[in-house]
Every structure is written in C-alpha cells, then in structure tokens.
Amino acid sequence: MSSTSGSGDRILAILDLFSPDRREWSPDAIMAALGYSRPTLYRYLKTLKAAGYLVSLPGDGLTLGPRVTELDFLMQRSDPLIATASPFIALLAGRHPGVALLTRWYGSKILCVASDRSPDAPVSSYPRGQPMPLARGAISRVILANLARRDQERLIAERRDILVGPDTTADALRETYRAVRRAGVCIAWGEVTPGVVGVAGPILAAERTPIGAISLTADAAQMTEERLAAITRDIRDSAAAISGMFCARQHRPGDDPALKSVASADQDCRDSAQHFRRRRQ
Amino acid sequence: MSSTSGSGDRILAILDLFSPDRREWSPDAIMAALGYSRPTLYRYLKTLKAAGYLVSLPGDGLTLGPRVTELDFLMQRSDPLIATASPFIALLAGRHPGVALLTRWYGSKILCVASDRSPDAPVSSYPRGQPMPLARGAISRVILANLARRDQERLIAERRDILVGPDTTADALRETYRAVRRAGVCIAWGEVTPGVVGVAGPILAAERTPIGAISLTADAAQMTEERLAAITRDIRDSAAAISGMFCARQHRPGDDPALKSVASADQDCRDSAQHFRRRRQ
DNA sequence: AACCAAAATCTCAATTATTGGGATTCAATA
DNA sequence: TATTGAATCCCAATAATTGAGATTTTGGTT
C-alpha cells in the first residue's frame, strides 16, 4: 500500500467518521477530529454535499445523505456475488429453520450484504448492511482461516487486542484456523448470539483468497445431530458452488446471470460443488 | 459553486459512472470516459477499492462495493428526516390503500428514501433507493414548485430538454408551479405509472427550501372524490407537520427523536399542521 | 429594522502534493 | 518457459492544493 491519493483519502476519511455511535458531525468537530484547516474542510464538505454523500441538518450538523442510498440500490443489483449467491441463500433458508446470510470480506471488515430467513426463524440481529464482529462467530473464523498466510499473520498481529484473549493464544488460533480451513466449513455455538449455532462456509475467489462467506444461524436448542450434519453439508456445498460459479463468470463478461431459481441452485449445489472441490486438490 | 476540491471530485466522478445501464467498468473504459492518465486512475482505484467503495470482479472489471451498503445502513438510521417522517408514511399507508413514499431532493435528483404500503396495495415500482423522474409526477412537481425563484429558473433552463415538451411551454410550467405552490399539494394522474394517481406534499426546511416530499400513489380506477379529498388533506397536513417537526429539531440537537407511534403521528398531523401553516403566512 | 455573532466563503501567495510519460514489475496464459 | 497485458514504480515538472487572515453571508436577537 505504497502510493495512495492523499486528497481523495482525506475526503473519504470524512465519511469514515460517521458511525452508529456518532451519526452527526459538525464542521468544527470534523476539523478537530481530522485536523483539516477550515477552508479546506469546507471545500471538502462542499464536494460531499453537492454530490449528496452528506446533507446538512437543521442547526449545524451533517449526516450521511441520499447518494449512499442510491449507490446501495445500484450495488445490490450490480454485485455478481449477490446474484450468484441469492438462490443458495434462499435454498438454505428454505431447507433449514434459521437465518441464511451472505457476507462479504473487505478491508478488514465483514459485512452482511444479503440475507434470507425461513418463515419460522428467530429474528436475525444481522440484517443487510450490518458489520459483523471480526473476532467471534463462524463467519469470521471461516474467513480468517482461509486468508493467505501472510494476511492472516498480519491480521493476528494488528488485531491482537480482539483476536487473542485470556483463553486464546495466537498459536491456538493458528491451529484452529488450520483445522477450519481443512474442514472447509466452521461451526460455532453461541459466540455471537447466545443460544444460536452458526455454520459458515468460505467463498473463495480465483486466487483462493476469501471474498466472503455463506452461513446459516439456527436455534441451538432445536438442533439435532443429523440436522447439523445436513446443514454443514449444504453450507459446504453451497460455498463451493458459489465460489466456482463466481470464478467461472469471468469468461462471459456482461452476461447478466439472471437470478437462478432455487431448484436449479439445488442442482448446482451438487454438481459444481464436486467439480470445484476436485479442482482444489 | 466556485471553488471545489478538484482531486476529490475526480475520485467521486468515478463512482458516478456506475449506473443501472452500466454496472461494470474496466479501468480502460474509465480512463477513456474520464480522461485520466493510467497511473492516476490506478491510484484513485486503489483508494476506492481499499475503502470498499469498489470491488474487482473476476476477469477485469469493477463494481460498487460493500462500503456503500454499510453507509446506507447507517444513513437509514441517521437521517432525522426519515425518523420524523416514518410514522406519517405508516399512517398514510394505513389509512389509504396505496404506496406511501418519502423522497429527498438533492443535487438535481429526487430519490426515494423510505416507503410503506398498505397490505392491499399494488406493488410499487419505486422502492427505496430508486431515483424518481424529474419531469413527471406529483412528487417532482411539488418539489420544483417550491424551489426558490432563481433555482427554479435555473432548472427550467438547464433541463429544458425534459421539462419543456411539445405540450408544455416554460410559461405554462411557471404557472403550474405557482398554482401547486399555493395549493401546498400536487395531484397527478398516471404520469409516472399509467392507471395510478399520485398525491404529493412538499417538505420544507427552515428557509422554505424544499428538501423532499411525502406522497401517496393509489389505483386511479378505485379512486373516489371523497377519498381523494381525504388523501389530499392527509398529505398536506403530513407534509406541514413533518416540515415543522424537522425544523424544530434544531433546538434539541443530539436528541434522538425515537420513532413516534402512528397514533401520535396522527395527533401531530392535526396539531403541527395548523401551527405550521399559520407560520407560513 | 438594525444589529450581532457565528458560519461559510473568498483572496492569494507559498509550497506541497499531484500528475503522467516511460520504465519496470507482476501475473496470468499459452 | 515465453509472452502478453495489467498494475505499479520512478521522478522531474508543474499545476493544483493548502491555509492564514480578511470578508461576506446567514440566522437569530434586541
């Protein structure tokens, strides 16, 4: 990460200030937080406001503006990963009572980008758009486990504070990751939400780097051994199928992979999964 | 709009390329479209990709990335206009069969930022995130009608192509706007969607500038005169109430106006509307 | 209506950070 | 392994960004 475009970074840094804890910022607060001079900041704000990324509040304050909604609307229809994975999510939620999620890995964050739930599922606490914890749960673990060695090490070093705790050493982590990676799936009991079991599989891009995960969370109290085995199998197959289809996409660019039906997803799930796993060797 | 931050604008311009018609862009296409040099473009792209605004597709292409989803998630919970207007939208959709929308005006676009529909409503073609046409429909007209004189003129001049057509002169437009402004509400029959009637009221900020609109669209075939009168009254009152509440907000900053119930919105609808209209004189 | 304080914008010189041509490295494919 | 195209690096030139301070605008108050 050598050369970045400084000015652009400084503008985007303003958007980074907005968080669930602080959804309104005054110009002065931004100045203090980022150390920009007044004219410079107002120039940046003019740009961001003109484009709709920020809007003024009555009084003096700023919040995120409608342009982000517009972009998200587009993004939802643009991301081929979402298009590819949607039928699988529906399939999972249809077969097993629970909440199926598609999450994406970016920067060093995990974000839910699509979800589906069975009619009788407990309400999910992680709807679309919600960042997921990096240190806990099946999703995060299955992603971290599939990182390239050096990325994994970098992350362990950088986020030592949250990844390594009183009951986890760095070495234990590495061992866990190795096992998860080999298994191709990860199961976690009540790590994110008590009383809920989560099963997650990795979505891997061509170079074998994880770009996201597919998962199902279900009520732990109603979980049986067979059911868990079935879920695990479905998750693993779905993850493999999605990975394979997503990579294959590159050969038919511009081809809008019209949302596939749940039925055909089911088929793909069996077919592609095998092919893909075979190729992995 | 004299001094803008050039570098930042050039970065954001990249995001503007993405549209429903073209959701994938290759670096070369961007270079051609915007005329940036190769190193510069790649620097920009690195910034945008690192922040998650763009992601690489398999092959070589880029699409919008998960960061916009994250921001939208936040925005939805940050925008006090949405918080203020939500109960009114619910109220409208509850009282009248149809689709109630909250739209925001920014730049020179109209965007739907929240919606609700009655159980028996025909499906809306304008969900959250969807841009609305500038030249047709009750929403656009009620917003344009309430623009400050010079903004209105500027817009008429700039978007002459879509605003002034074979059956509309600029003067007729101005006259229409004047009438709509005076009425405080606008009704349009089948302009956006055939067979559908739309009623919209303006949401005005402190300085009387429109920042959005609240509207209800309903099946024209099932519309009666009384019903339309009732809707019109509700829309006008809601719009006035929201405008008043939104402006009042500035005196209790940081105060999270916890979502009000539909019942209390109903009350506000009557109360505030009168106050606000009185103040308008 | 006139006034006041705070917010937003402007001016402009200094300088710094950005730019782009060309060379180079990296990565994927045959 | 050779080959092509994509992505990055290098570095001097320059054009664009920056910020102190002055100025205007805005919104609220007496």
Give an overview in words.
Two copies of one chain form a homodimer. Chain A has 281 residues and is of the alpha+beta class. Chain A folds into two domains: 6-69, Winged helix-like DNA-binding domain superfamily/Winged helix DNA-binding domain (Arc Repressor Mutant, subunit A, Orthogonal Bundle); 79-280, GAF domain (Beta-Lactamase, 2-Layer Sandwich). Chain A has eleven helices and eight strands. In chain A, the strands form two sheets. A six-stranded antiparallel β-sheet of chain A has the order 5-4-3-8-7-6. The first copy, chain A, has a two-stranded antiparallel sheet with strand order 1-2. Chains A and B meet through helix 1, helix 3, strand 2, helix 4 and strand 4 of A and helix 1, helix 3, strand 2, helix 4 and strand 4 of B. Chain B binds a DNA duplex (30 and 30 nucleotides) through residues 2-3, 5-7, 27-28, 36-40, 42-43, 46, 60, 206-207.
